Amino acid sequence: MKTIITDVFFDLDHTLWDFEKNSALAFETIFKNYQIEIDLDKFLVHYVPINLKYWEMYRTEQITQTQLRYGRLKDTFDLIQYQIDDDKINFLSDKYIYYLPKYNHLFDGTIEILEYLKPKYKLHIITNGFAEIQNNKLNNANINHYFQTITNSEMAGVKKPNPIIFQHALVKSKAKKENSIMIGDCIEADIYGAIHSGFDAILFNEHKKTIPENIKQVHHLLELKEHL
After folding, report:
1. Could you read off the pLDDT of 21-80 as tens digits, one per residue?
2. Structural domain count of the chain
3. Do residues 209 and 125 both lie within one domain?
4. What single string gives the DSSP state of each residue in 140-201?
5. Is the domain of 51 the same as that of 93?
6. Residues 127 and 176 in one domain
7. Checking DSSP bridges between strand 200-204 and strand 217-218, what pairing results, if any?
8. DSSP for 85-97?
9. 95: containing domain
C-alpha cells in the first residue's frame, strides 16, 4: 500500500532560491559600490567552490558562522592575490549579507510547482541558512505565503542532516514523518538527513550529478509533478 504524503518540506538555497545567481548579483553591486577593482567572473570562479567548502565545514560543526563569513572571502581574495585587510573583509562580508536577500531569482518552475502543490499538500521549509536572511529571501521573492512553517538551524540548534532539525520541523508542522517528503539539492544534508529521520526524499539534481540508483531525483522542479 502506497504511503500517503500530506506534508512536503523544501530546502531553500539551491533548490527554490537561485543562490548562485543572486550571490553573483550581490557581489556585482558590492564591488561597484565600494570600488573593489576585481573581475567578477574571476572572483566567482574561486568563490563558488570555496563557499561550498565552508558551508560543508559549517554544517559539520567545524567552524562558526563568523568563521564562515570571513574565511570564504579571505581565501578567495588570497587566491586571486588581491590585497585587502581584515577590516575591509569583515565590512564586505556584512554588506554581502545585507545585499544578498535583496535579489530574488528563483529556479525555473518554482512558482508553478508551488502553485501545483499548495492545494494538495501542506508545504514547509527546512533550511540551514540564517533565520533573518532566509526570511528576507522568502519575503523578497514573494513565496513566503506558500509555506505553513519555516524551520531553520538557528531555532533547532543543529543543522541538517542532524535528525533533531527534522524532528523540530515535524513538531512545528504537526506532520508525521511517514507522511512527509523532503526535497533538496544536497544529498548528504537534505536526502540522507531526511531518510535517516524517517522521511521520504527527492533530490533536486539540477546538474545531473551521478548519484546512487536508489535515490529518487528530478532535474527540473516541474518533474516533481510525476512524484506528487
Report:
1. 999 999 999 999 999 999 999 999 999 999 999 999 999 999 999 999 999 999 999 999
2. 2
3. yes
4. HTT-GGG-SEEEEHHHHSS-TTSHHHHHHHHHHHT--GGGEEEEES-IIIIIIHHHHTT-EE
5. yes
6. yes
7. parallel
8. -HHHHHHHHHHHH
9. 19-102
Predicted confidence at residue 2, as pLDDT, reads 63
Listed residues 37, 72, 102: the one ending a domain: 102
What is the helix (H) or strand (E) element at residue 58, kind and residue range? helix 40-59
Tens digits of residue pLDDT in 214-226: 999 999 999 999 9
Residue 161: is the preceding peptide bond cis (ω within 30°)? yes
Has this prediction a pTM greater than 0.90?
yes
Same domain assignment for residues 216 and 116 = yes
3-state secondary structure of 122: strand
Q: What tens digit of pLDDT does each residue of 112-141 get?
A: 999 999 999 999 999 998 888 999 999 999
Q: What is the pLDDT of residue 1?
A: 47
Measured in degrees and rounded to the nearest 5, phi and psi for residue 4 equal -90, 120
Buried b (16+ CB within 10 A) or exposed e, 66-103: eebbbbbbbebbeeeeeeeeeeebeebbebbeebbbeb
% of the chain residues with pLDDT over 70 = 99
> Do 221 and 109 meet the contact criterion of CB atoms below 8 Å apart?
yes
